[in-house]
Give the backbone structure.
Amino acid sequence: MSRLKELFQHKKNILSIYYTAGYPGLNDTVKLAETLEQSGADLLEIGFPYSDPVADGPTIQASSKQSLDQGMDLKLLFEQLKALRSKVTIPVLLMGYVNPVLQFGVENFCKACVEVGVDGCIVPDLPMVEYEEFYQTTFKENGLSNIFLVTPQTSPERIRKIDALSNGFIYLLSSSATTGQHLQVSEDTQTYFSRIADMKLNNPIMIGFGINSKETFDKACQYANGAIIGSAFVKALDPANLTGSVQTFMQNFKP
Amino acid sequence: MSYFVNEKGYYGDFGGAYIPEMLYPNVEELRQNYLKIIAEEDFQKEFHQLLKDYVGRPSPLYLAKRLSKKYNANIFLKREDLNHTGAHKINNTIGQILMAERLGKKRIIAETGAGQHGVATATVCALRGLECVIYMGEIDIQRQAPNVARMKMLGARVVPATSGSKTLKDATNEAMRDWINNPVDTHYIIGSVVGPHPYPDMVAIFQSIISEETKKQLIEQTGSDQPDYVLACVGGGSNAIGMFYHFIDDEKVKLVAVEAAGKGVDSGFSAATTTLGKEGVLHGSRSILMQTGDGQVVEPHSVSAGLDYPGIGPQHAHLFKTGRGEYVSITDDESLQAGLLLTQMEGIIPAIESAHALAYLEKMTFTGNENVVVCLSGRGDKDMDTYMKYFNL
């Protein structure tokens, strides 16, 4: 059974952490994964940086820029990730924009993911129709999951279609926003979360965007299998005390 | 072969809508409605009325006699510089503001490079009483100060884009982020034939008035609506598509698109996309863009803020790849010299963008009978600072 499937079958209140590869130090990528697993993370999303990240707010933009300036690219990332599976057992996804994947070659990218033990991908600017037409076959052949986003404005018909095309989980955005804002759990948001929960989708649901505290994490978990923390974690990283800063941050989310 | 968009939003290998889910409802709403709305009688009536009475169209097609003598051909200038606000950009913003109103939008956002599109957007927002936010690269804000002041005077809020190269590409990123964060009431007026489908097609339709008029004017002046060449500068490529549009299917008319070579194609400071770029995805469509081997977008350079963009519209990528259009480039120096030449031979100070198209005339050879149309996409008032510094005026 795949690592992702097993996780969702056996665990509730799943804590997923996003961070940018090659940040704060170029060679921190695997070290961070290891520390995060030891500190209680259930799932990891490692961002491969892109020069023009339109769905991201200032925190992840800045981490991406620093990572690129330090020399990160996909080739180096896959090189670093060769050490991943000797140190980390939880599922790991790669998250990033479509152009670096296109230049690396979709087939090469999928094969490289499998080789280093990556379980799936999140590519926010790769829409469903393009995925179906040009990418799905290669992803499937390599047994990679592809995760799609759903926002409060996504229509029910489209959510059903996304559900049918997904094979991992559905990434539910708390609001239509770029990353790194504070989740306002308004009545509207709760109605939206309930509406999705009531659809009884085939795929598990993870809520992301604006999760930055134990309070917002717990709230999101009421409606989903778990939640994703990105900007708040990236912001908390201290290059002078990397392990310590990860442990302190993760302490906040202990059940 | 079709040179226009197909039902899936593609021009050959290029186009599509590579956008995050957050933008899907907005883009889809536009996709489902734009052709229907444009075809409506009342839209057409209002659009053409405004182009006539407010923009001042038709813009003249002027036979530049002294220039013609110098180059040994009949050089016609399509005078988009005489439009209200000083460039072709207003053709598109008039169309899109009417579109936004019909979609029930209350707030307008836009990106701008040279500031011409920002001014054209702020203008139509003032005209219709809509809130307006313009994203502009921090560097462009410095080099285009008069246009920033105009936008502010027109009531727009000008927000500096401080990421990346701090120019047009980054202003576009910021506008897209704004749209993601304001998914219901906001319309994004993209200023060029770039972005996710249906933007490249919609903007092309609004700009196609340039070639529509040119054909009629050529018949009046030459007896034929078939010039030998049409030339236009290309950043994203909106004036060029407008200039080419009604000639694209007439293969006897040669289409010449002039990109900005900056300090030279191989200098590392260039915006010559078709020479330096590779296929990829930027700002929502598959096209040709300047990038590293890892797919990171390369920061372009041009003396002209309006051409300082690392990509081209997907229709241009298709015209380039199929060979229907000839894509060439002109350096900063060549364009400034061409700007001075036009000023002193015809009494017209062109925008540095448009001067790139004019500069290419130097590299062409004519036999004396050819009819050549150059799109004079904008006027040079906004560039006086650059001209003054370069020529020690």
